[in-house]
Amino acid sequence: MGDGLFIRCKDCDHENEFMFGMGFLFSSFESVLELLPHRKYNFAKEILKNNKNTKSQYDGYEVYQCEKCASVQNTFLIKLTDEKNHVLMSSITKCSRCKNSRKKIKRKNNKLINYKCPKCKSKNLYYAESMMWD
């Protein structure tokens, strides 16, 4: 079961609601793979078909943020790597503004550690639990 977190910036009133964890769809790698957008799903299937030593990793919904501009992605992780641990495909996208990799934001006591408002980059935030999902 997953849960959710509502965040509002106290400085600019920007709001986000994020999902965390795994629902029933995360019972297998194949079921998570099917959650990918069509083009990324086809790309992943092609990698798996053509690379016999591919390693796969998947995890539930988390928040990923660009360290430079604070853009946010709330998604699940699917990562395919080769035998030398080079990333062949990841569901975590690079920031569309600055092309930097987004970093996973750690959560503790229902707060995101070092999370910044994506609009004004403030850390003056209000947090509330928001949902349970499956």
Describe the structure.
With 134 residues, the chain is mainly β. The chain has one domain. It has 2 helices and 9 strands. It has helices at 29-33, 38-50; strands at residues 2-9, 15-20, 55-66, 72-81, 87-90, 102-104, 107-108, 111-112, 125-133. The longest helix is centred in the first third of the chain and has 13 residues, at 38-50.
The number of helical segments is 2
Unreliable spans are none
Which strand order spans the largest sheet, edge to edge or round the barrel?
5-4-3-6
Give the biggest beta sheet.
4 strands, antiparallel
Order of helices and strands: EEHHEEEEEEE
Q: In angstroms, what is the radius of gyration? A: 16 Å
Percent in helix: 10-25%
Shape: globular
Overall number of structural domains: 1
Strand content: 35-45%
Structural class: mainly beta
Distance between the termini: 5 Å
**Rounded average pLDDT:** 91
Attribute tags:
single chain, 134 residues, mainly beta, three-stranded antiparallel sheet, 2 helices, 13% helix, globular
